[in-house]
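example protein:
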Amino acid sequence: MNSIRNVVRVVAIANLTYFAVEFFFALKIGSVSLFSDSIDFLEDASVNILIFIGLGWSLLARKRLSRFFAVLLMIPAISVVITAVYKINNPSAPSGEVISFVALGALIVNFTCAFLLAKFRQNQQSLVLAAYLSARNDALANISVITAGVITMLWISPIPDLIVGISIGMLNADAAVKVWRSTEH
């Protein structure tokens, strides 16, 4: 139990730290995909902090906490919709170089977190599963953000950034459903 708590604590700190980095650059260059991913880092930090707290709780309390996590996983999806609508009404292409560079850092953070959590995803069922799925989905999303940045370098348009931002929201919605279903067993 102690090693799970240590890993979850490290993952929470890593997510909170990279939230600040990605949020700063998202605002600086007006990137929907970086904004969506930064909010996702904040959500991941919150989830891992709550997991750290909830690991010692009873099975029933952990199931309730997991359902709360499922709802929390929807926050990035909702923020994507709001940000995408704003970007559609105020179109401008963000810097593809900055998107790709910042997303590469995010990929490293998320891959490391997913790797650390992978050995515990079967333990404590839905609690650690929520953190693992979130980190795994985020690593996949980061590859898409890097790709959007590269495409934007070649084709100066807000469209790749918008598409990836919306896709990140869809991944989080899917993870929320999986976490919710895991509490039914």
